[in-house]
């Protein structure tokens, strides 16, 4: 056997020895290419689509690898809070912008002002101001808008026309007249508008359209007893009291698109994701008979809510620079246009709207108009809970269990109780500040 | 007289401890400690702010419990849960007993098939089943309303009308759970000696008398067990409203546990949610003790 020289076994040994030496030497040398892994959490469809956008980023950043984890929207909120509690946060994350104040209160997010100051890819004044504002808490920027969800009117052109109107009205009174005309035309079995009782957004929009804010004193107390909110709630109640809207939740209507196609209702307050759904689900002969329009306001063109998702970098992240570069990449107009084509999500910056499919799609134009007229909801961590309770209160009013007066008085007290801890915290912070001076 | 431990070491009682220790340790770590932790938590105002910085935690004594008792939503949830238990438990027991008697009957053929088929809902996934039930309960296209209207009855808005939403949940829960109790009762039925029935028949007892005088008395211990398990299980109603109605319409299907879940995991008011948990625990404990006492008295008679 010795004549064979190197046996397969010894050959293997030699090879692995040289390999080991090479690895050792390489590890000592300065040229060791170390791949950086960015953990990126995203939700729903956005997470699926990301996989198709990221190869381009990874090509220009060969030493960065992005790992996407997909969260379900329904479980995301709990998952994020548990991640913060368990110190297991990702580097970059998609975040519903109403959750930002909560995570800021948890001190989980990295302020982005420094990076923004040096950024050439992201210019603040290119963004729609209403949505940009939702990403700052107490004047500090914690997130960059990724896409905007605002709600406005989806409507049946043919039915509106049959009722004697060419375009949706821009004022509440005008719109109410149109709704009544449609209701008169379609009879008791059908309705003029769908305002799902399981969603707080329609009432939130009506309240945002008013002059007074929903919280007062820097978010210390509720302001739901104000004339403004009473007006919004009374208008909301009216829609149901006059049978213009069915007292139904979304889940009770098995298929909203079908029902709108059948003319069960002619108006629907909803968001951009439904553009794609209506295109897909309505039969071809109905495709010319639906359209979108901006929200009507109390005395003229109305405002709407500045919802949507933002991108945030977690404070605990060890890859902040790379995460920021990925955030910049996803914010470039070209990528945002492709993202729109893949998801139907509306870009938050004006330059992304100037060309491509989004500039020509007739259904998005109303959104483009609306995006200039957004109003931010109060930036307090308790906001989502307040809105859920508001929905419950409104449902009681709609079902006639409470009148507007009793409802707003009780609700205002309830909101004050929910904000009690916040008041205590703010008072404590102030006394600490005073002591340190 | 005292019994001296023998030279080799342990008395009998002492020697038991090492054997029980691993189990006791596990129970201590995974059950006792969390329970004590939750109890302590219920005396604090642990919330989002405390999660951010523990110095924001305040000891509040019994305030969570006081607040709970004046929270209308808690009473509403308790009311809903009570309605669910009052409707659900008897229905569930009757369904279980009825099917157990049918499957056990000597006249029944394909016993294995029926046993499996009736037990099947227990092992199905609730979320998948809930989807199908949502279709069956649909106001305009649902199978149940289709049958109702064919019988000349008015259609019911099962999941949209606050008066019917809880009955709909009861229907689903009973259908989903009766098979479990059926299996337990079936086992008890098979343990009743045949000669008792023979003797009863020789005395001239018909089927009804056999059921009243032989079967039911001998089933009392099992029925007690089953009803205790069912009551405490049904008080912990959660998954059915969670997947079917999310507590709606008009909060008519919010159960105590659902209320606790929302407070704890949705709004992160963990201190308050812990208080809810302990109130529910106390409630179930008292009810179970009452049931045991009642059963004992029945057994004596």
Model description:
- The complex is a heterodimer of chains A (437) and B (301).
- By secondary structure, chain A is of the alpha/beta class.
- Chain A has two domains: 168 residues, 3-Layer(aba) Sandwich (D-Maltodextrin-Binding Protein, domain 2); 202 residues, Periplasmic binding protein-like II (D-Maltodextrin-Binding Protein, domain 2, 3-Layer(aba) Sandwich).
- Chain A contains 19 helices and 15 strands.
- A five-stranded mixed sheet of chain A has the order 2-1-3-14-6. A four-stranded mixed sheet of chain A has the order 8-11-7-12. A two-stranded antiparallel ribbon of chain A has the order 4-5.
- In chain A, helix 2 links the parallel strand 1 and strand 2.
- The longest helix of chain A has 21 residues.
- The N terminus of chain A is likely disordered.
- The mean pLDDT of chain B is 90.
- Helices cover 74% and strands 0% of the residues of chain B.
- By secondary structure, chain B is mainly α.
- Chain B is globular, with a radius of gyration of 25 Å.
- Chain B has one domain: MetI-like (MetI-like fold, Orthogonal Bundle).
- The interface between A and B is medium-sized, with 27 and 27 residues.
What's the N-to-C terminus distance of chain B? 42 Å
**Number of domain modules of chain A:** 2
- CATH superfamily heading of chain B: MetI-like
At the third CATH level, what is the topology name of the largest domain in chain A? D-Maltodextrin-Binding Protein, domain 2
Gross morphology of chain B is globular
Task: Record keyword descriptors for this entry.
A: about 425 residues, D-Maltodextrin-Binding Protein, domain 2, four-stranded mixed β-sheet, disordered N terminus, B: about 300 residues, mainly alpha, MetI-like fold
In terms of topology, how is this protein built?
The complex is a heterodimer of chains A (437) and B (301).
Chain A: H1 8-28, E1 36-43, H2 44-60, E2 64-71, H3 73-85, E3 92-96, H4 100-105, H5 113-117, H6 129-133, E4 136-137, E5 140-141, E6 144-149, E7 152-156, H7 157-162, H8 172-186, E8 193-194, H9 201-208, E9 215-216, E10 221-222, H10 227-241, H11 256-261, E11 267-270, H12 273-281, E12 290-293, E13 304-305, E14 307-313, H13 320-331, H14 333-343, H15 357-360, H16 365-371, E15 374-375, H17 383-398, H18 404-418, H19 420-436
Parallel strand pairs in A: 1-2, 1-3, 8-11, 13-15
Antiparallel strand pairs in A: 3-14, 4-5, 6-14, 7-11, 7-12, 9-10
Chain B: H1 12-41, H2 48-52, H3 63-69, H4 72-104, H5 111-123, H6 126-136, H7 143-150, H8 162-190, H9 194-202, H10 207-235, H11 239-244, H12 256-266, H13 270-300
Helix pairs in contact in B: 4-8, 4-10, 4-12, 5-8, 8-10, 10-13, 12-13
